[in-house]
Amino acid sequence: MTELHNDEVFNILTGKISSAINRTFLRAFTNQGIEITTEQWSVLACLWQKDKVTQQALCKLTSKDKPSMTRLIDKLEKANLVTRVSDHYDRRINLIHLTETGNALEMKATEIVNTIASKTLNNISSEELNTVRNVLKKIIVNLD
Fold first, then answer.
1. Is residue 40 part of a domain?
2. What is the CATH number of the domain that holds 18?
3. Which residues contact 94 (CB under 8 A, 6 or more apart)?
4. Is residue 97 part of a domain?
5. Which residue would you say has higher pLDDT here, 13 or 32?
6. pLDDT digits over 78-135, tens only?
7. 133 lies in a domain?
8. What domain range includes position 104?
9. What count of other Cβ atoms lies within 10 Å of the Cβ of residue 45?
10. 63's torsion region: left (phi>0), alpha (psi -120 to 50) or beta?
């Protein structure tokens, strides 16, 4: 068997962590009757912070490309969680707006996310968490 290099191990570990977190969120959402994906949640979470934003703003906030964001918004719209509304000042621009159903999910979904985040970070000191946060930020900057 070939020995893995550090960068290959890093790729495997980050992929496994991401997959495990996604599975955990999906299971928890489904168990609570919330039929959204983690990607859809990331869009909703942005809208819960500031509603009626452009698709481009959501792309920046979630690090998604335009085609992916269009698909996400389409699915959220079909689920009656968001709607596209024309900008009052520039009708060429659509703003993404939460529906009542989308707004109603906030408390329940946020509680689930916070519970999972607490469990995920259990037994990790603030110092360790800050180190990981700083390293990951540097990696993101290096990739941009």
1. yes
2. 1.10.10.10
3. 54, 55, 84, 85, 86, 87
4. yes
5. 32
6. 999 999 998 888 888 889 999 999 999 999 999 999 999 899 889 999 999 899 888 8
7. no
8. 6-116
9. 15
10. left
